[in-house]
Design brief:
By secondary structure, the chain is mainly alpha-helical. The chain has four helices and four strands. The N and C termini lie far apart (75 Å).
Length: 152
């Protein structure tokens, strides 16, 4: 029983996930500190408030205190984290991946349509049905996609 647990713990994906969580929590701490130190005062300047820190903002209803400022600060930190992740990680990786992916050749037989006479599936660029041998007009869009001339 313990050997199964040991095998589970020592799998590469479990260790990778643990490392990812540790790095993610450290990244969150950095972004939260950045938003507290720089973004919150900028919001304060923009809203003409003295501090810009919303963590002390509350309202009271029948003696119950609602600290809505904590939610505002967390929302600001979330959007900053999402923006940093998108612009610093996701967008550059997508650009790098697009450079390494090559355009796949177009499969001219992939686009299918039904024969108007026998109703079997044939390639859209076909000019004759393989099943009933009737002559048909090829689909002009499929011909253009395959870079083939349109027949007269």
């Amino acid at each position: 029983m313990l050997s199964g647990f040991k095998e589970f713990i020592l799998r590469g994906n479990v260790i990778s996930m643990a490392v990812g969580l540790a790095v993610g929590s450290a990244f969150t701490a950095v972004v939260t500190a950045f938003s507290t130190a720089f973004i919150t005062p900028l919001i304060g300047l923009a809203t003409s408030s003295t501090m810009g820190d919303f963590s002390t903002a509350t309202f009271t209803v029948d003696g119950a205190h609602f600290k809505y400022g904590v939610v505002i600060n967390a929302t600001v930190a979330f959007f900053i984290t999402a923006a940093v992740l998108y612009f610093a990680v996701i967008a550059p990786l997508a650009k790098i991946q697009s450079r390494f992916t090559t355009d796949k050749p177009v499969d001219i037989k992939a686009a299918l349509r039904d024969c108007p006479r026998c109703y079997t599936e044939i390639p859209a660029i076909a000019s004759r049905c393989a099943h009933c041998t009737s002559e048909i007009k090829p689909d002009p869009e499929a011909l253009a996609l395959a870079d083939l001339p349109t027949p007269r």
